[in-house]
Design a protein that fits this description.
Largest sheet: 8 strands, mixed
Strand order of the largest sheet: 8-21-20-19-9-16-18-17
Shape: elongated
Distance between the termini: 58 Å
Helix content: 40-55%
Number of helices: 28
Number of strands: 21
Length: about 800
């Protein structure tokens, strides 16, 4: 007993004076300090490392090192290193975009970084949240965030725990009650002793599960990686074989063999496509920033455009987080009289909660200036507030607390409105005096107020947009399922009667089974949100998730594309792909439009690049048996790629394009590239026949010139196809790239020899021109035929290749699971 009394006195003493400076220093030394509370953005070093040390850069680095031993750096050889510039550009774009996003997020976190008032050495002082130590006494008042798990030691406060639990209602906390980190004080003042710091805090335990690196979910990025990795596996043995055949068997010069072999291998990797995709997505990120949306990775706009399931958090996403009055029902008084009495009461009360704000807004224009004789502020325990004005006592509160013996009519009204998702508040009056905190006698109802969550103005239009785009919208909330359904209905969500109370589900299997089955989910725990997202992804859906609280962090991290509100928690913002800086849900359709522009235009441009990959691979295989020099040096491929691929694809990729995303990216672009590959190979084979059978005495430069002209003509035919249907911009692009090549052949500049830089040969004989004209004439009908075949069989090819890809992926995952189990 003596020991207990001693401990009590010590606790009371600490509550009165707080910790001493010596006690604080000792606890900091022991590591009992709060530290950083947020999930940090990626470090600068990590951003540079992730963008620099990629498989793509590694392949090109190795090629550049090999080339450096054989190709000079003078005006005749420097053009062979053009592909290195693509690597540098691609890397810089990725680094700059991520650093920009990091800077914005860190600035947001700094602006919103909470501070706390603590009692130390008997004096109140403001400190940073990271400096809180175990046992500190915090002074909490309205508007402050609770930054560490604690217990109330003195006073009384109302707390909003919606960022933790999803429940929007304020909860009264008295001495001895526990407080969770991440919640906010709505009203009152209290002292609270810190019980947990750092990773032991409730909010940090939830956030800890999100502290892992998640790769961006991008079909285009993954497809490009597949192409690069596949070609990198092919080019090693193919490069060795080419070198051996050309140098050891056919006796070509060492330098020429290495340079042309590297040229063929570089051409097999769509390096320009990697660069273009980075540039296009980076521009998309800049465009959506104009709509107050921050993208934390370049590919999230693409992912959102591909989403087929959108999971929305109710509070802060569909609703504003505030309340509004939907209507009133008066009893034995007129509406005007009812509003005057209500305005008088609200003028007298100091209440500053969501309900009081909604009532004040409702009667804002009503005139009433009578002063109150006495008041009783609202309490979450009493569930009512009151004031005596001009000899009349007015009471506002929950019907079941103001009228414990409710009439059948009152019960019916409450039940009917509850089914509509409305909260019912009764307004009553009596001539009896207001004595202390006791409810006065002889109360008579003057009317009922129907109140509900305020729907964001943009929410109905945004939900309609996603519905029209074939996106299945689900609402996931920690609130009561009936309330969530009513909000969904008011916001215009389809199938909102398909609801489930997640507190009734006991196993993970039940939760995962419910994911596809229901539309509205109520009383959802943080780990259940995570399971729902995982279940939807496991069923083949591309899932987007919106949220603003700590309770949303795990699900946000798991989703293919996550969207957070700037008004939400730092943890939610830092793990999300997109942050709506003005917390405006209406920005999402604009992000989808940017994603569509990027995807559809890149599909058209990607086929241009894959033409080069395809024909360079086939040329390398062909020239293993053809006793001739390889067609291209790297510098020639740089010009060839620029005028037939790089310039037109870049311009076309920046056009507006809001068409819905359809088909599978990789099979679609491969099939579109086939006509160009067939046409180029027809031209190459024709030139092989000419040089081997007709003009057998041509030099290496003359042969490469014929190969170049045949290939560039086939490339222009494919650019023509990509520009269809023609408009002014497309026509200008087509004419420009032709004129640019002509200028490169015939214009001399004082500061650079363009012909030497790109390895162009201009001394064409009449016979060579006749031969190339015949080849060009052959290429036109060949391309027209292959174009027709493409338009007829493209979708069939996509379906078959896509199904094969799905089967291979399924077998890979199955094998991976078996290995993990073993």
């Amino acid at each position: 007993m003596v020991a207990e009394n001693s401990e009590t006195r010590i606790a009371e003493d600490i509550s009165e004076r707080g910790l001493t400076s010596a006690e604080v220093a000792e606890r900091v030394k022991e590591g009992k300090v709060n530290g950083e509370q947020t999930i940090r953005t990626k470090s600068v070093g990590r951003i540079i490392f992730d963008n620099t040390f990629t498989f793509f850069n590694f392949i090109f680095f190795v090629m550049a090192v090999i080339l450096a031993f054989f190709a000079s750096f003078d005006k005749d050889g420097i053009g062979n290193y053009g592909f290195v510039m693509l690597c540098v550009f691609n890397t810089l774009v990725g680094i700059i975009q991520e650093l920009r996003a990091k800077h914005t997020m860190d600035k947001l976190s700094l602006i919103s970084a909470p501070k706390v008032i603590v009692l130390r050495d008997g004096t109140e002082s403001e400190i940073k949240v990271r400096d809180i130590v175990l046992g500190d006494v915090m002074i909490l008042s309205a508007g402050q965030q609770i930054c560490a798990d604690s217990v109330v030691t003195d006073g009384s406060i109302e707390v909003n725990e919606s960022l933790i639990t999803g429940e929007p209602d304020a909860i009264r906390k008295n001495a001895g009650d526990k407080l969770m980190s991440g919640s906010f004080v709505v009203s009152g003042r209290a002292k609270a002793r810190v019980e947990h710091v750092g990773m032991d805090n409730f909010a940090m335990k939830i956030s800890a599960g999100a502290k892992y690196i998640k790769k961006p979910v991008s079909v285009i990025r993954n497809s490009l990686n597949k192409i690069v990795k596949t070609m990198s596996v092919i080019i090693v043995p193919l490069g060795i074989a080419l070198f051996c055949v050309k140098y050891l068997v056919q006796g070509n010069g060492l330098d020429d063999t290495v340079i042309t072999t590297i040229g063929s291998l570089v051409g097999m990797i769509p390096s320009g496509l990697v660069m273009l995709s980075s540039a296009v997505f980076c521009l998309s990120v800049i465009r959506i920033a104009k709509h107050h949306t921050l993208a934390q990775d370049m590919y999230c706009v693409e992912t959102l455009a591909r989403v087929d399931v959108l999971c929305l958090d109710k509070t802060g996403t569909i609703t504003e987080g505030s309340m509004e009055i939907q209507g009133i029902k008066t009893v034995d008084v007129s509406e005007d009289e009812f509003k005057v009495h209500l305005k008088s009461l609200m003028n007298a009360l100091p209440d500053d909660n969501a309900t009081a704000t909604a009532v004040r807004n409702y009667v804002e224009e009503v005139c009433a200036g009578d002063e109150a004789e006495s008041t009783v502020p609202f309490s979450s325990v009493r569930k009512w507030s009151a004031a005596r004005i001009n000899g009349v006592t007015y009471v506002l509160g929950a019907p079941e607390f103001v009228f414990p013996d409710e009439s059948d009519e009152m019960v019916a009204i409450t039940r009917e409105k509850a089914e509509e998702g409305l909260r019912v508040i009764v307004f009553a009056s009596t001539a009896c005096n207001l004595e202390g905190d006791t409810l006065p006698d002889n109360l008579k109802p003057e009317g009922f107020i129907f109140i509900a969550d305020k729907i964001r103005k943009e929410a109905p239009d945004t939900l309609r947009f996603f519905r029209e785009q074939g996106v299945n919208v689900k609402i996931i909330s920690g609130d009561n399922p009936v309330t969530v359904r009513a909000v969904a209905k008011r916001a215009g969500l389809d199938d909102c009667d398909n609801i489930i109370d997640m507190s009734t589900l006991k196993t993970d299997e039940e939760v995962m089974e419910a994911a596809d089955k229901y539309t509205v989910f109520g009383r959802v725990l943080p780990d259940q949100k995570l399971l729902l997202v995982k279940a939807l992804k496991a069923k083949g859906h591309t899932v987007a998730m919106t949220g603003d609280g700590v309770n949303d962090v795990l699900a946000l991290k798991e989703a293919d594309c996550s969207v957070a509100m700037a008004s939400g928690s730092d943890a939610a913002k830092n793990v999300s792909s997109l942050v709506l800086l003005d917390s405006n849900f209406a920005s999402m359709p604009k992000v989808v439009a940017e994603g569509r522009r990027s995807i559809n235009n890149l599909e058209r441009s990607a086929s241009l690049f894959l033409v080069k990959t395809g024909y360079n691979l086939l040329i390398a295989l062909l020239f293993l048996i053809v006793p001739s020099v390889l067609p291209f040096e790297p510098r020639q491929l740089t010009l060839l790629g620029g005028v037939t691929i790089g310039i037109p694809s870049t311009i076309l990729a920046l056009e507006k394009n809001n068409k819905r995303v359809e088909g599978r990216f990789l099979p679609k672009v491969i099939m579109k590239a086939v006509p160009g590959i067939i046409t180029v190979m027809t031209g190459i084979i024709s030139i092989v026949i000419v040089t081997q059978c007709i003009f057998t005495g041509l030099s290496q430069e003359e042969q490469q010139s014929l190969y170049f002209l045949a290939t560039v003509f086939a490339g222009y035919l494919f650019v023509f196809k990509s520009c269809c249907p023609f408009n002014i911009l497309h026509a200008a692009v087509f004419v420009f790239v032709i004129l640019l090549l002509v200028l490169c052949y015939f214009v001399n500049l004082s500061f650079i020899d363009i012909q030497a830089f790109f390895g162009l040969y201009r001394n064409m004989t009449p016979d060579m021109w006749k031969a190339i004209a015949v080849v060009w004439a052959i290429l036109i009908p060949v391309f027209a035929l292959s174009w027709w075949l493409d338009s007829r069989y493209n979708e069939t090819f996509q379906d078959k290749v896509g199904a094969l890809g799905d089967r291979i992926e399924s077998l890979r995952k199955s094998k991976k699971r078996k290995n993990a189990q073993a």
